[in-house]
Amino acid sequence: MIEVAASMARGPVFLAGELMECLITFTNPMSHLSTSASSEMLAWASAQIHCQFHASESRVALPAQGNKQDVQAESDTVLIPSRGERGQCVLDTPPKILFCDLCLDPGESKTYSYSEVVPIDGPPSFRGQAVKYVYKLTIGCQRVNSPIKLLRVPFRVLVLQGMPEPPFPQDEEVSPSNPFLEEEEASHRDARPLERALDMLMVTTSRRCPHMFNITNLRGKVAKFCIFKTVYRLGEDIVGTFNFSEGDIPCLQYSVSLQSEEEIQQHYQRRPGQAISVTGHGRHLESCLHTASSHFSLPIPLNVTPGFSTDIVTLRWRLHFEFVTAREPMEPPTVLQNQSEVTVWVGAEHVDVDTFSWDLPIKVLPTNPALASYLCLFSVQPNFKYIFL
After folding, report:
1. What ranges does the record give for the region Disordered, renumbered to this chain (predicted)?
2. How do 308-309 and 313-326 pair as beta strands?
3. Helix/strand/coil for 200
4. Alpha-carbon dihedral 223, 226, 231, 236, rounded to 10 degrees
């Protein structure tokens, strides 16, 4: 019996281009005091990263792949990391040999360190209604005269797409200088692609420039809407304000929803003019009759996928607004000055209303992968074990 355990100490979320490190431990769990205990011989073990793609047959029309045979079925000594998985492998890294001819005595264990740069040319991790991209670290191990056994460790990949051009020269430091770091160490830090990308991400999503919109329908002006920026990163709050005092049409109720749009590229659509899949990720609903101003705050979850685009699918983000307005003016309740008695105002039982909606596109970018890993640390344990005979 052999026990294989994999652990990602930093967490299971990585940014494309980041170095992923994993500790892999091989253990012979039999106690040396057991009468049936014996040494175990492992022929070899290797590890590699691969991205598995799966599409819904009812929504995506993929080109024929031909009759691909799994050579694993014919030979037990060939490692295929995606063997037995649904879909197709769209990206993989070269396998790295961890060891050859390892002998483990009863109760003995050996730990090996695996490191690999997450490819920058792949899609992000995504589980949509029509398309899925799943990343896994596959550890293959074979005992002498035994078939290959696979341990798959899922992890999440964030990809920076849609970043605007930096407003500063490439040789200019992005982050504030640290007087406690030596000049050589500081320049070496800023040269790292990952940290430079995170600095650019922070600068891009920190810019505030109020955007003003007049909300109107066919009858007139309803309100003025203000949002402070349209580019966000995962985990941020989207804050907006409404000013109804400048409107001519009474607004009874409004709602704001954070939605993602999953659109299949035209060449891969199963039907012409196929509808876009819309998924909601939060909603704010408020009654606002006789309200002069109001605001909302919608958090962007850490576990969603930022906007991206591939040859098959495009993911966009938007704010979806819905308004309910009255067709006739509605007088506000009047309260006399120096009135001592309590006045109860009762709303109208029947009001003729109009409804209309509006979509505001926004950009959602990744966040620091260490921050996104905290969510996974509380929801799932980033340690994986597999026992085989």
Report:
1. 166-189
2. antiparallel
3. helix
4. -100
Per residue in 27-40, pLDDT (tens digit) is 888 776 665 667 88
The pLDDT averaged over each successive group of 10 residues in the chain (389 residues) is: 85 90 89 70 92 92 61 50 77 92 89 93 93 93 84 91 49 52 49 73 86 92 94 94 92 96 93 91 93 94 94 96 90 72 76 93 92 65 52
CA gap 211, 228 in Å, rounded: 6
8-35: buried (b, 16+ CB within 10 Å) or exposed (e) per residue?
Answer: beebbbbbbbbebebebebbbebeeeee
- Residue whose pair of structure tokens reads 């993929």 in the numeric block: 62
Domain 3-61+76-159+370-388 class in CATH: mainly beta
Phi, psi (5° rounding) for residue 388?
Answer: -135, 155
Torsions phi, psi of 226, nearest 5? Answer: -130, 130
What is the DSSP track for 38-73? --EEEEEEEEEEEEEEEE-TTTB-PPP------GGG
- The topology under which CATH files domain 205-330+351-365 is Immunoglobulin-like (2.60.40)
| CA–CA gap between residue 344 and residue 333 (Å, rounded) | 9
Say which residues have a Cβ less than 8 Å from residue 368's Cβ, sequence separation at least 6.
198
Q: Where are the domains of the chain?
A: 3-61+76-159+370-388, 205-330+351-365
Task: Report yes or no: 255 and 283 within 8 Å, Cβ to Cβ.
Answer: yes
CA distance linking residue 317 with residue 308, whole number of Å: 10
